[in-house]
Amino acid sequence: MSETQTIEQRLNTLPQKIAMPFRQLLSAGQLNEDNLSIILDAGELSGDYTKLIGFAIGFLHLRSQRVPVHDVIAMAKLQKRRVNLTWSAKRWELEHQRLSRAETLERLAKENVHYDLSDYDDLLPEKFHGYLIRTSRRLGMEGLRQRHCIASYHDRIKSGRCAIASIFAEKKRWTVELIKTDNQDAPLRINQIKSRYNEIPTQNIREAIFKTLSIDSEKAKPKNIATRESNYTYLETLQRILPILRDHQIQNVNVYFSGYGDSGQIDNISYNPQPDIDPGEITVQHFISSNHFEDGQWINTRQLEETSLNEAIDELTYNYLDETDIDWYNNDGGSGDLVINVTAGTVSLEVNVNHVETTTEYHSERNIFTGEEV
After folding, report:
1. pTM metric for this prediction
2. Cis, bond preceding 273 (omega within 30 deg of 0)
3. 101 dihedral zone (left: phi>0; alpha: psi -120 to 50; beta)
4. Most exposed of 217, 265, 278, 312 (fewest Cβ within 10 Å)?
5. Residue 168 sits in which domain range?
6. C-alpha gyration radius of the chain
7. End of a domain among 179, 212, 245?
């Protein structure tokens, strides 16, 4: 369809029995050209015009219920994806999450930020069976290719907190997160290794990757880093950022997250009222939690670092979500929000998991300093 075609020209391409009702609705002012254009787009993307009149009724109803059906159609058109006119409201919402992630990855790729990885270059072999991911474009492609959420590591890589490598072992691509250590004998360690759909490697593959990167797994074990004993690391971070939020007269913070398929992400952080300084420029010291696989088991560690306020809130949200042990990012996925009530000194988390319908599977509000339910 040419972008210069008028609504009438588009209607002329349809069978008369389909086009006529739309002309009548337009003439009566019961349907405007903007909505009709989106409905016709949906017909083209589905390849099925026989259900288009029925879909028009459903489209207007879905919009009245704030289901983002119009956004899905617009994104599907840009990404050249098909839609199904008989999708339920929940399916339209899930497609919105999926297409939004794809759009984010594409936008990340278009920005093509170059990462300074010189410190990591000095610690790796000159040649190995793989490569370091040096641009946001490559990072976006890695996430799309591997079907996992590695693209969300963009800020961490840019700030020098980690590097990501693509390594080939056993005829398969593995995404490897590398972190610098304070151990002079082993200045680099592997934090995690994942393949397509977050597949975890066997011990043999792990050993092959360590060998490929010339990293001694024994020497690279974390030293002088406290193993996490408390389940409330996010509360410690909240205790650190609460005074900062109050200093900037912020009354509450809302964090929105969603997941689908095999990955999840934080979609947005909103501050009320918005501070005069960009939250990305406000710094805070807090604990960063990380997981690594060692001697057949996952080990949680944490380390005190200075990051932006946005990154600290990202970290504490993921940390709190991990504690709930709720799968909000696989299969039909889920969504929810975390709310920091700065005035009251409380934090609440709501996690919705999508099955046939969305159900609230976790809700809690705790005092930031005591960890007690309020």
Report:
1. 0.48
2. yes
3. alpha
4. 278
5. 118-212
6. 24
7. 212
